[in-house]
Structure formats: C-alpha cells, structure tokens
Design goal:
Elements lengths: L8 E2 L35 H13 L2 E2 H10 L5 H4 L12 H4 L1 H17 L5 E7 L5 H12 L1 H4 L3 E7 L3 H12 L3 E3 L8 E4 L5 E5 L10 E6 L8 E6 L2 E9 L7 E5 L5 H6 L8 E4 L1 H17 L1 E10 L8 E4 L2 E3 L9 E3 L2 E2 H7 L5 E7 H7 L2 H11 L3 H15 L1 H5 L2 E7 L1 H4 L27
Parallel strand pairs: 3-4, 3-8, 4-7, 8-13, 13-17
Antiparallel strand pairs: 1-11, 2-10, 5-6, 6-7, 9-10, 9-12, 10-11, 13-19, 14-15, 14-16, 18-19
Helix pairs in contact: 5-6, 10-11, 13-14
The structure holds S-adenosyl-L-homocysteine (SAH).
Length: 444
C-alpha cells in the first residue's frame, strides 16, 4: 500500500480520451464512463465498505490496488464472487460466441506441435479460462485428431483464481468429477476430462510444473491491474483512488501530489503520450512465460483487445453488457483495460521471438475460418442453425465488432523462426514452416 498522500489534487478530465460507440455484446472500446449505478449513497456494497475503511485509514490507493481488490479480493472480488462471462453475465467473449473460435485455436496448437517435431509430451496451460468453453472446444479438436496425438502424453493445466469459476470449469470439462487439494500435486484441484485427459487447477502460473508447454491467454491480460499516469506541468503524476469529500461513500480519482515510485519506474523517458496505463503484473507474467518457453520449449498464444503502445485512457467497467462507471459499486462489475502489446513484447526481454499483434479477423482468416464456416453450413440442415452460424461469424470477423479490436500475439522459441546455425550454413536446411494464423496454415 502506498503511504498516505494528503492533499492530492483532483484529476482533471483526460483531454485525450475520445469515447467510441460500443458494440452491443462484446466488451468494446470506448473510454470509462457509463451509467450511474445502484450502490450509491446508502447502498454501499461490502467491497465499497471495505475500500472506504482502507482509504480512511491509509489514504488514496493506486488504480492497480483498487482494480486488484475489486476483481480478485478473496471475499468480495468480482471474479471471486461471480465472474460474469457469458450471455447471462456481464460480457460475452469469442469462445462463448462460436465453437469455431476454440476449434481454430486447437488447430493452431496442433500445427505448432507438428512444426516443432511432435514432442512426446506437452502441457496445455490456460490462464483465466472463464467458463472453460475454450478448453472444451480445444479438447474436442484434440479428441478428433486422436490418431495423430495417440503417442503424445497431453495434460491440461488451468490457472484460475476464482473458486466460483473453477467450479463452473470443472463441471464443463469433467462433468464435475474432481478431487480437491490432491496431496501429490501443487494443484488445488484435479480431474479427468470427458475425453480422458488429466486436468489440474492452480492459482498462479508459478505452481504449474515445468515442462514443454503451450500457453493460452484469452481475455486474461486485460483483467490484470494497471497503474495510470497523467502528464502535468510539474511532470508525471500517478492517478490514485480516494474518497470523494463532497459525496458520502463515493470514490473519485485524484492525482498524486508528487511523483511516486511507479512514475519513476514505469514511464519511459521517450514517452510522447499525456496519459499512460501500465500493468506490471502483466509484465511479470509474460516474463515468466518467456522464461519457461526459453528453458523447456513450447509457445504462447495471447488474444485480447489492445494496442501497440499508442492508446491512453482505456480503463472501463462492464455490467450487464453495458458500460459501468469504474468507481461505482466495486466488485459488482468487470473492470478492464486494453493490453499494451508493445509492453508485453518488451518484457519478454528477447528470451523468445514474438509475432503480432495481428487483428483477430486476419488471424482467423489465416486459420481457415471461411472453409470451416462452409463445412458447418453444409452440414446443418435447418435455416435457424445456418443463420446462427453466419451471425457468430459476423461477430468474430466484422471489423466493427470483434474483428478489428481483438488481436493475437505469440511467443515462440527463436529457433522456431530462424535456424540456429543459419549464419554459418544458410542453405543447409529446409525452410521453416510458417506459423499458422500469422501466416499460412500448412498441416502436413
Ligand atoms: N478466457 C475466458 C475468460 C476471460 S475472463 C474467455 O475468454 O471466455 C478473465 C478470466 O481470468 C476469469 O477466468 C478470471 O477469473 C481470471 N483471472 C482474473 N485475474 C486473474 C489472476 N490474477 N490470476 C488468475 N486468473 C485470473
């Protein structure tokens, strides 16, 4: 917790943030804002009461600290309590829209597994699996390609902080047949998938055993806490969350009166923006993935909405598929910020190669979504199903919906892209196969 900062100045509205009209179902792309909310004066949520006590005792907190509390506090955090992914929740994600999405991602892993010489063992590690739909669709692909994978020892490892969501995942993937706190493992739960593959649950990536692994993070990094900074005449100041002195039980943004350790450490000297968001937690996790891939092999696929170090104020809240003020009724709404892929790339520290970010519609097109849609349309006889298939394709691919705002980004061992002895003997080896999605899909 930062030291109390009495007399912090109110935050001026950020002149750079320009809201865009949101698309209806996907979590869209406009700036913070939204409707005022029940849970105002007199109706403080348990989380708000907890934060008010904390702020009164120790003064303003960073946005990162606020976001961490609101999302993953063990008692009252949004993901801990409900984690509303899906149509009946607060936001819908691509795997929830269409099975084709997860199937194509499953094919991406198979294609990389082949390109890397079909290692005998691999772990699929998913960070923030939500309802477990994406893993379920991937496992269906693995089961359809069982003859190809028959000699490979595959296991699934899910990193999930929310007990509520891990229950939903267990039901979806194993039919609920799981063992809690297995003694022989670092996992907090284990089970066997409907297709016979072992599944383990962890709270932290560091608990996942080492070994050749494919990593997956879909709409995970955007949920990690961010620090926010504002350029002022006196230099960079960190945005903090404080109690509004004018309105009882209401929170407001303020600026730190002087620079903080975070302003010193996270702002690059060459920064040209006036407002910057940084997630050091995202940086630490990507660093861990890069170290693990460098040491044990594998690949990571990250899909999220984001930018390449250009956007400013993207912090926003979602509740019931609508924008929700980020400081109202904390714990009852999803809080999120665009992923800064340039920061993730920097934090790999050159341990792995990186590809992307590439737009979702380009990635899925390269993965053969058009052909897959044609096959599904031909196999379905009723017009309602065909209509549904076309509609979900449009949601995923339309540049105005999810096609342009979501991007794919990958970490791969350097030798996957460049022969290690290329400099000495440039013509000695056959060319390396392109990485599917970022280039052509070749399944040989
Ligand atoms: N990947 C899913 C869900 C995205 S929602 C989908 O696309 O549908 C974000 C997920 O990350 C939830 O499962 C949430 O509980 C989990 N999560 C959030 N913060 C986390 C953290 N710090 N560590 C592990 N999981 C986290």
């Amino acid at each position: 917790l930062p030291p109390p900062l009495p007399g912090a100045a109110p935050l001026r509205p950020d002149p750079l943030s320009l809201p865009t009209a949101p698309a209806p179902a996907a979590r869209p792309f406009s700036s913070a804002g939204g409707e005022p909310e029940a849970g105002g004066p007199g109706r403080a949520t348990a989380m708000l009461r907890h934060l008010l006590l904390k702020l009164r005792a120790t003064g303003p907190v960073t946005v990162a600290e606020y976001m961490r509390e609101a999302l993953t506090n063990p008692g009252q955090g949004y993901y801990t309590r409900r984690g509303g992914v899906g149509e009946s929740g607060d936001f819908v994600t691509s795997p929830e829209i269409s099975q084709v999405f997860g199937e194509l991602i499953g094919i991406w892993y198979i294609s990389e597994w082949i390109a890397m010489g079909k290692p005998k063992v691999f772990q699929l590690v998913e960070l923030g699996p939500g309802r477990g739909t994406l893993t379920d669709d991937i496992l269906r692909v693995f089961s359809q390609l069982a003859s190809l994978l028959s000699k490979c020892d595959v296991s699934i490892h899910l990193v999930e902080v929310s007990p509520k969501l891990s229950e939903i995942q267990a039901l979806m993937l194993t039919g609920g047949k799981v063992q809690s706190n297995p003694e022989d493992q670092s996992a907090y739960m284990k089970g066997i998938s409907k297709t016979g593959i072992p599944i383990f649950w962890y709270r932290d990536i560091q608990d996942v055993p080492p070994g050749y692994s494919f990593y997956l993070a879909h709409e995970f990094f955007d949920a990690l806490p961010i620090h926010k900074f504002q350029r002022t005449e006196k230099g960079w100041r960190e945005v903090l969350v404080d109690i509004d002195p004018e309105v009882p039980d209401q929170l407001r943004f303020v600026l730190s009166p002087s620079s903080t350790p975070a302003t010193e450490n996270f702002i690059q000297p060459e920064e040209t923006r006036d407002h910057v968001e940084v997630s050091p937690e995202a940086g630490v996790i990507i660093q861990r993935l890069a170290c693990r891939i460098e040491k044990d092999g594998g690949a990571a696929l990250v899909a999220d909405y984001g930018h390449d170090g250009t956007k400013t104020d993207t912090f926003r809240g979602f509740r019931n598929h609508k924008l929700h003020h980020v400081l109202r009724a904390p714990g009852t709404a999803d809080l999120t910020a665009d992923v800064d892929f340039s920061y993730l790339r920097k934090m790999t520290q050159g341990r792995t190669a990186t590809l992307g970010p590439i737009k979702q519609r380009e990635f899925l097109k390269n993965m053969g979504i058009d052909l897959r849609l044609q096959v599904l349309l031909q196999n379905s006889c009723d017009t309602a199903t065909q209509e549904q298939l076309r509609h979900s394709y449009d949601m995923l691919m339309n540049p105005k919906k999810m096609g342009d705002c979501f991007s794919f980004f990958a970490l791969l061992p350097h030798h996957r892209l460049v022969h290690s002895d290329k400099k000495q003997k440039p013509d000695s080896k056959s060319p390396l196969p392109p990485v599917a999605g970022f280039g052509e899909l070749l399944l040989k």
